[in-house]
C-alpha cells in the first residue's frame, strides 16, 4: 500500500484532526488563525497525526485519537517554532 492509499483509509479522521486544530486555535487575533492554517496547509507529509490516527483505529478508538493527533501536531509545530 502507498502512503496515499493509507491516508485515504482514514481521510475522515484526518479531516477531523484539522477541524480540532482550527477549533482549538480559534481567536480574534488574526495571527493565531494564520498559524492554524499554517499547521494544516503548511505542507509536509503530516506523518505524526496519521500515525496517531492509525494507532487509535487499530486499538478500536473512535474519538479520543482525534484529539491526541491534534495535540501531537501542536507539539511538533511548537518545537519547530521554538527552533
From TrEMBL:
<keyword id="KW-0808">Transferase</keyword>
<keyword id="KW-0460">Magnesium</keyword>
<dbReference type="InterPro" id="IPR000092">
    <property type="entry name" value="Polyprenyl_synt"/>
</dbReference>
<comment type="similarity">
    <text>Belongs to the FPP/GGPP synthase family.</text>
</comment>
<protein>
    <submittedName>
        <fullName>Polyprenyl synthetase</fullName>
        <ecNumber>2.5.1.-</ecNumber>
    </submittedName>
</protein>
<dbReference type="GO" id="GO:0008299">
    <property type="term" value="P:isoprenoid biosynthetic process"/>
</dbReference>
<keyword id="KW-0479">Metal-binding</keyword>
<dbReference type="GO" id="GO:0004659">
    <property type="term" value="F:prenyltransferase activity"/>
</dbReference>
<dbReference type="Pfam" id="PF00348">
    <property type="entry name" value="polyprenyl_synt"/>
</dbReference>
<dbReference type="GO" id="GO:0046872">
    <property type="term" value="F:metal ion binding"/>
</dbReference>
<dbReference type="InterPro" id="IPR008949">
    <property type="entry name" value="Isoprenoid_synthase_dom_sf"/>
</dbReference>
